[in-house]
Amino acid sequence: MSATEHKQTTALYQKQEEIETLISEFEARTLPREKWTHHAHLTMALVYLKHYPVSEATERTRSGIQRFNEAHGVKMTKDHGYHETITLFYIWAVGKYLQSANSNCSLVELANGLIDSRYAEKNFPLEFYSRERLMSWEARVGWLEPDLKSLD
């Protein structure tokens, strides 16, 4: 089943303005920390990948998360804070979703479709990585290739 054929069960966003507000508050680092959810991370990556080349979207994602965390006092530790491999994995996953999505979909439809897809599942990276590898310090501070299944 493609990303656009997935049965929609989650409608997090009703209007594009909600997404625009999320992105502007994220970038200004005024988004309340409790609103910086997994779905918000994915929505931000989706917006950046829709509007910028992959390399720029990746850098905006990486530096944006790091700046947001710093502004909210989130320290990077061995099991908390920014995680490079998970960030880059989800950039890849959101890119895969966009490749399969209907290009005529609105941003709201794309974001809700992404959130409702397997690409958004929190355990999705564990199809590709052993927990030990993914949760390692090396994976947190730098990119590690998957050890269970390659990214295609």
Secondary structure topology:
Blueprint: H1 16-28, H2 38-51, H3 54-71, H4 84-100, H5 107-115, H6 131-134, H7 137-141
Describe the structure.
- Mean pLDDT is 91; it is low at 1-8.
- Helix 1 (16-28) packs across helix 2 (38-51), helix 2 (38-51) packs antiparallel against helix 3 and helix 2 packs across helix 4.
- With 152 residues, this protein is mainly α.
- It is 53% helix and 0% strand.
- The chain has one domain (16-122).
Rg calc: 15 Å
- Biggest sheet details: none
How many strand segments? 0
Mean pLDDT: 91
Terminal CA distance reads: 17 Å
State the shape.
Answer: globular
SS strand fraction: under 5%
The number of helical runs is 7
Give the low-pLDDT segments: 1-8
List the helices and strands in order. Answer: HHHHHHH
Number of domains: 1
The level of helicity is 40-55%
Structural class label:
mainly alpha
Feature tags:
single chain, 152 residues, mainly alpha, 53% helix, globular
What's this model, at a glance?
This protein has helices at about 15-30, 40-50, 55-70, 85-100, 105-115, 130-135, 135-140. It is mainly α.
